[in-house]
Each structure stands twice: as structure tokens, then as C-alpha cells.
Write a structure and sequence with these properties.
With about 120 residues, the protein is mainly β. It is about 0% helix and about 55% strand. Strands 1, 2, 3, 4, 5, 6, 7 and 8 form an eight-stranded parallel β-sheet that branches.
């Protein structure tokens, strides 16, 4: 599997009233078996002036991934169940600026917020 959605190098993006369901089982939670379903992210974005709100996400990896080089991102009112939670950063080494997560409910997760840093 691969990311459910990827919006790359966008400007002025709004994702609202949307949902992603990428489940391995109908159980309300995750097991160690689910840890093998990498890259089943819900919404992955990179760019400027991004607003994600009022979304519901069930994945086996990250709920929302704000990738490297993003600026002015607001994520709010998320109802999510995922392994990786709300993720900031990726495999690169660029800088993110002005990223806000607020009023997000992440349940049955191994990580609520996941910060990925790499050395240059």
C-alpha cells in the first residue's frame, strides 16, 4: 500500500469534511500486526497556506503528514485512529514553518504526535 492522498507543492489548499478509511481489520484499535502496514497515511501534504479541518481518518500509519518544506499549515478538528498520529517532517532535511495542530482527537494510536528530523 501507499499513501491514501498526496498533495505535493500546493499553494492555498483546503481539505474539509473528508474521510479516509484504510483498515486492515474492523477492530477499534491497532495491533502489532498493523505495524507492518507502512505508508497507509491518510492525508499527506507539502506546500504553503494549507488548511485541513473537520476530517475523519482511520489508517495503519500516519493520520496526517505535513511533509518537508511546508509553511503556514493549520490542521484542526481531526478525529483520527492511526499508528503514527499527526506527523511533522519526512525523509528530507528542509525546514517547516508555522505549522499548527489544534483540537485534534487521536485515539488508539501508538504515537499522538510524531516529529521526524534528519541531520543535514
Amino acid at each position: 500500500p501507499f499513501w491514501s492522498t498526496l498533495f505535493e507543492n500546493v499553494v492555498d489548499l483546503e481539505i474539509r469534511y473528508s474521510g479516509v478509511s484504510n483498515r486492515r481489520t474492523p477492530l477499534d484499535g491497532h495491533s502489532f500486526l498493523d505495524m507492518t502496514a507502512f505508508n497507509t497515511d491518510g492525508f499527506d501534504v507539502t506546500g504553503k497556506n494549507i488548511y485541513i479541518h473537520d476530517v475523519s481518518i482511520w489508517t495503519q500509519d500516519d493520520c496526517i503528514g505535513i511533509k518537508d518544506g511546508s509553511e503556514n499549515v493549520l490542521v484542526e478538528r481531526v478525529d483520527g485512529t492511526c499508528m503514527g498520529g499527526l506527523t511533522l517532517g519526512s525523509m528530507g532535511s528542509s525546514i517547516n514553518r508555522n505549522i499548527t495542530f489544534r483540537d485534534c482527537y487521536i485515539h488508539s494510536s501508538f504515537k499522538g504526535i510524531y516529529l521526524k528530523f534528519r541531520r543535514k
